[in-house]
Amino acid sequence: MGEMKICIICHSESGNTRHVAQHIASAFDAHLVEVTDTASYNRLTRFFVLCKMARGEEKTLIEPASVDISGYDLVVFGSPVWAFKPTPVIHAAIDGLKGCMGKPAVAFSTHSGRPGQTDETFKKWIEDRGMVPVAVTNIHQNDIENEKKIKELVALVSASVKV
Ligand SMILES: Cc1cc2nc3c(=O)[nH]c(=O)nc-3n(C[C@H](O)[C@H](O)[C@H](O)COP(=O)(O)O)c2cc1C
User: What is the residue with the minimal CA distance to atom 9 of ligand 1?
Assistant: First the structure.
């Protein structure tokens, strides 16, 4: 497995998704890229605006705008759940990928109990870019320190690398 090169691309606003991504990164000695929104939002309307954007499967301007994954064997995406979907930031990251055609991909999200259509939406976006969604899963925010759940996710990534 030491030969396998894994790139993790994550979006995280309050740290939950980043926390899980870092666990995976250290388990595989993977390269971790965190993508962020370049826009700033009104403090009061923020939640509603972000939910509306997520619901509409919009994309935002992100930094870095593009990640080249041609040198990797597997890509792992991590996103919070917003309005029952992955975020406009991770959508933009998937959209902006370079060298992704035919790559196996794993996706996970963190949420507060209602993941909704997140898994299906992630799968669709991955397929739309010509990647193979080998595994898509979600983790409750209360489980981000749960050793058993993290081990399951790491095992899922291991299994996906071998495909
Ligand atoms: C704008 C917004 C919308 C959210 N929508 C949902 C949702 O639809 N379902 C859910 O279970 N949690 C929802 N949450 C909670 C987050 O998914 C959860 O706290 C997640 O772990 C945050 O990840 P992060 O710390 O990496 O940003 C929402 C949070 C925000 C800020």
Answer: 114
